[in-house]
Specification:
The strands form 2 sheets. The protein has a 6-stranded mixed β-sheet, with helices on both faces. It is elongated and about 60 Å long. The protein is α/β, with parallel strands linked by helices. The chain has 8 helices and 10 strands. The relative contact order is 0.16.
Length: 261
């Protein structure tokens, strides 16, 4: 995933500059793998941990094992409920709100949202931004326009298929991620539906593939470099001081307007 690869790349550079090595543990969105990773990190006596939780994680209590071992942790992006430690996120609520307001300014009134699992803070905040924008602009929330799925290209294809099969199909789609948005555009084009003339599409994350697809994807850009930098600073401070941080920081997003909206 572009977001995570960019984050890891930036943190690796910062760590190397400070004579730290980076170990990468992937959960592949699996809760049990995530728990095994936590134990492996503890067994390796790491200096500190950065974590973004799996899609299956609903409770972050098992991350408290790091506190018991005096290993500082910084959560970024996906943060579980009840988590102890520093937290760095993007303002996902505002990002979704800004995207919705752009669509509404373009006179789109039937806006669908292909979202992720609602228990994850990132997707929950984006859904809240979506619903807030509808209410703020006196547009009805329509349950059939809310498609809850994953964050892969196939999820965008399936979401667009379901939405275009409705009696009154939407005139815009907000996608929870760029992969989903690209999948939606691919499906719409395969059905002869013009983007953005008939259905506009906006994604999240600013994946490089967004400028490879036709039309180029309008997206909400997360400040990946800034997020990685702040997470690194917080973790390094905790490692050096021996005091676990409880800071929570939220960074601004921005709209990159291209051709799909």
């Amino acid at each position: 995933h572009h977001f995570f690869s960019g984050f890891i790349s930036e943190v690796s550079v910062l760590a190397n500059r400070n004579d730290f090595s980076v170990m990468i543990f992937q959960s592949d969105e699996n809760l049990e793998t995530e728990k095994r990773n936590i134990q492996a990190l503890i067994d390796n006596r790491v200096a500190g941990v950065m974590a973004s939780v799996s899609r299956e994680t609903t409770d972050g209590s098992f991350f408290q094992a790091f506190s018991r071992e005096n290993i500082p942790i910084v959560f970024f992006d996906r943060i579980p409920s009840g988590a102890h430690g520093a937290k760095v996120t993007a303002n996902n609520f505002q990002g979704a709100l800004d995207a919705m307001n752009l669509l509404i300014q373009e006179r789109r009134t039937r806006i669908a949202f292909i979202t992720g699992a609602s228990h994850i803070n990132v997707y929950k905040s984006r859904l809240e931004g979506y619903r807030h924008a509808l209410a703020q602009n006196n547009l009805p929330f329509r349950q059939e326009y809310l498609i809850e799925g994953g964050f892969l290209l196939d999820d965008g294809i399936e979401g667009a298929r379901r939405l275009t099969g409705l009696t009154e199909r939407p005139d815009a789609i907000l996608a929870v991620g760029d992969d989903v948005a690209i999948g939606a555009i691919k499906y719409l084009k395969s059905q002869g539906i013009k983007v953005p003339e008939e259905i506009a599409v906006i994604g999240f994350d600013n994946d490089p593939m967004g400028i490879a697809i036709d039309p180029e994807l309008t997206t909400v850009e997360q400040p990946v470099r800034m997020m990685a930098g702040r997470a690194w600073q917080l973790l390094l401070s905790a490692v050096q001081s021996g005091n676990e941080q409880q800071t929570e920081e939220m960074l601004n997003t921005r709209i990159l307007r291209r051709k799909s909206c």
